[in-house]
């Protein structure tokens, strides 16, 4: 069997394993919104017992990815039970619009409603899904700071002594702005696209370093838009290179190029991609931070999955530069060494980490890591639906 046939067989087999396991998980967790699996068991973000703040519970930022997996599997298999589960999941988070959880919504409404509501509308033309997607787009557009031409990331902390985040923007939002590109195209209204494009420009100027690495958090003066400083965020420290942030950067600028055709966005995506490829360890396992010392190795399989998606999309646009080969290496490494396809345990990708310095959620399973793992497998087979 030649190399291309082997790769094709491997991707088909891995996708089939993924679908079998998530069919089991869907039956086991109906009516729930899993986010994290520790010791092989999911939490449930729809459970009121964990809703200790407005941005937790059903407003948790990753709550769109369970439905996103179901929508991708529905598109792949045509099994209506996946669509039904995706809709049930989305209607839970739709409750944020009419409850106290509204106060917890922030820039991550893109992560919540793109793979759920917008995906449903793309697949079925369901009007309820369209309305929910547009409601989320309105919320995201409302976070735009016109002085600094950026989208504010988070709401102010509930603790009285905590600093305000009114001028904070983060690299993750490069994925969320796809919601605005979609709304602009759907409504024929250029305002949404203008906001998205302006945010991408600001990110390009202020987040991307000369070597192609990206900052996680940048603070601007909310009144004037002046650059104030940057923070290490979920990376090791200020000036370091949080790997998932690099993945958001590649994928976000690829998407902005797709929606605008702007060559500077594509060049920025390639610049970040080239930096990331040069920093990937030989074994293909992605560290939480590319600057972390060798003796203190924390891994983030989430970053590997998102990078694989981003590089596959980049390969479609600029073929022949090796992006697709690296993407396949990352995805196959995950499948062979970091994927748990066994029955009885929750989640698939292992050794996912939220942040370098955080005490919780180190080397566990994240549902959104599984989403991007599935998306990478489908992209490589040209079977994905592009929700971004």
Q: Mind sketching the topology for me?
A:
Blueprint: H1 3-28, E1 36-38, E2 41-42, H2 65-77, H3 80-94, H4 109-124, H5 127-141, E3 144-145, E4 150-151, E5 168-170, H6 173-176, H7 178-187, H8 190-206, E6 217-220, E7 227-231, H9 243-260, H10 263-279, H11 301-317, H12 323-337, E8 365-366, H13 367-380
Antiparallel strand pairs: 1-2, 1-8, 3-4, 5-6, 6-7
Helix pairs in contact: 1-13, 2-3, 2-4, 2-13, 3-4, 4-5, 4-7, 7-8, 9-10, 9-11, 11-12, 11-13, 12-13
Radius of gyration: 19 Å
- The computed structural class is mainly alpha
SSE pattern: HEEHHHHEEEHHHEEHHHHEH
Task: Count all strands and give the number.
Answer: 8
What do these coordinates show?
- The protein is mainly α and 388 residues long.
- Helices cover 51% and strands 6% of the residues.
- It is built from 13 helices and 8 strands.
- The strands form 3 sheets. A 3-stranded antiparallel sheet has the order 2-1-8. The protein has a 3-stranded antiparallel sheet with strand order 5-6-7, with no helix packed on it. A two-stranded antiparallel ribbon has the order 3-4.
Give a brief description.
This protein is mainly alpha-helical and 388 residues long.
